[in-house]
Amino acid sequence: MTQVIHDRLLIIDFGSQVTQLIARRLRELNVFCEIHPYQNVTEALLKEIAPKAIIFSGGPDSVMREGSPRPPKAAYDLGVPILGICYGQQVMMHDLGGRVEAGEHATAEFGRAYVTPTETRPEFLNGWFMDGMGREQVWMSHGDHVAEIAPGFEVFGTSPGAPFAITADLERHFYAVQFHPEVHHTPNGATLYENFVRLAGFTGDWTMGAYREEMIAKIREQVGDSHVICGLSGGVDSSVTAILLHEAIGEQLTCVFVDHGLLRLNEAEQVVKMFRDNYNIKLIHADESDLFLGELEGVSDPETKRKIIGKLFIDVFQKYANEIKDAKFLAQGTLYPDVIESVSFSGGPSVTIKSHHNVGGLPEKMGLKLVEPLRELFKDEVRALGHELGLPASFIGRHPFPGPGLAIRCPGEITREKLAILQKADAVYIDQIRKHGLYDEIWQAFAAILPMRTVGVMGDGRTYDFALALRAVTSVDGMTADYYPFTHDFLGETSTRIINEVKGINRVFYDCTSKPPGTIELE
């Protein structure tokens, strides 16, 4: 196969919490970019990637600390444009002959700040970043600051705590800013990235139409004449994976839909019907609810639940793979954030917030190789690819649903009684959201049954039933999220419906926690 080579932009990650936002901003400009931890970026990798431009991310360290993160010297010698952000600016100045000073109260900046252009070549900033010639709002998060710029650099913008907020060596096409243009609170940050990639000569050749054709060719080359098992959940990731694989290899694909008894109300029937009615794909409906619920009986620890479910998923896939001749591959809807998060910037394992049933490596004994056609994509790109593939809008726009299903929306011990109550309550909640025309405004919404009973009164009688938590968030990619601001009228109406229509619930709460500090799911 003749491999299509995209113009590539390399993001060297020094540990910023928002490095992924840089990649998202670039992908929105149809620029293909890759994030690599700084210690993995060697001269060999630079040669392999052959980036057309480089971005140095922010980070929590200090360039004055011995052993602090650095890019390879070869990065500066490639002759390509480089943009340094926050710590990336400081490391660039330090490496190229400037000076960085430790943060003091007067120079540290956290949060909203304003950059004012200098009189040095004002035409450079006007149109490249600044909107007009006034001051520009930015988002700062730095203690240390550049005290002396490197030879060849000029100052184009200052802020109260950063005398060198915007600097550039125009001859070498090195640019450096102390603020974070990738975050929402730098309103004109997208303009900076747009002009940086234009200056670097990117043509915007990263499109879902091109990705579709390239990935089909790659799948055919990887799989050959073998058969592929695809784990189908009915969510957008697995659905897009399945349709893409079917385009590539047709009858060599068998989808396995595992009904683990932890699905939403009537979900199994809906997913099976959609695929059997709309696509000529071999589909096994594996009703393994007794197996999963049996193994989860009496288990309350969330990590133990996830590990049990993950192991059982693998066992079930292996079981059906053994029944299919020449099945040598397992397809998964792994996304780019999953890949990035598996390696921390320091090279060690990232802190495990919670395990994913399809992340963390399959046992070697499973005997199946992985096909992961979405591993270079963010969530919104998967949806765009779904449109390219003709997937029904009702499935493309579905809210994300976790692999462990309702198990992680049922804190504490899981019982069939609690699951039945939760399924009904969740169905009423989603129905309310749709009736009010809010479904597409919300990234993800669900109900969770809490591990507590509360006293209530119904028809002059005492009740002692479960409490229910409602959750709804807005997000772009699920990495950060904020709660959806329902009106009190909506919440009151929804609570009344749930309590009236679902036996076993007598109290309803609304979760207004953002991510961070919370996670989207309760477990």
Structural notes for this entry:
With 523 residues, the protein is α/β, with parallel strands linked by helices. The protein has 3 domains: 8-200, Rossmann fold (3-Layer(aba) Sandwich), CATH 3.40.50; 208-396, Rossmann fold (3-Layer(aba) Sandwich); 415-511, GMP Synthetase, Chain A, domain 3 (2-Layer Sandwich). It has 15 helices and 20 strands. It has helices at 19-28, 43-49, 87-95, 122-125, 189-200, 208-223, 236-249, 267-278, 289-296, 302-321, 336-341, 379-388, 393-396, 416-435, 488-501; strands at residues 8-13, 32-37, 53-56, 82-85, 99-101, 109-117, 136-142, 145-148, 154-159, 162-169, 174-177, 227-232, 253-259, 282-287, 327-331, 369-371, 444-458, 461-474, 482-483, 505-511. α1 links the parallel β1 (8-13) and β2 (32-37). It is globular, with a radius of gyration of 26 Å. The two termini are 44 Å apart. One of its GO terms (molecular function) is GMP synthase activity.
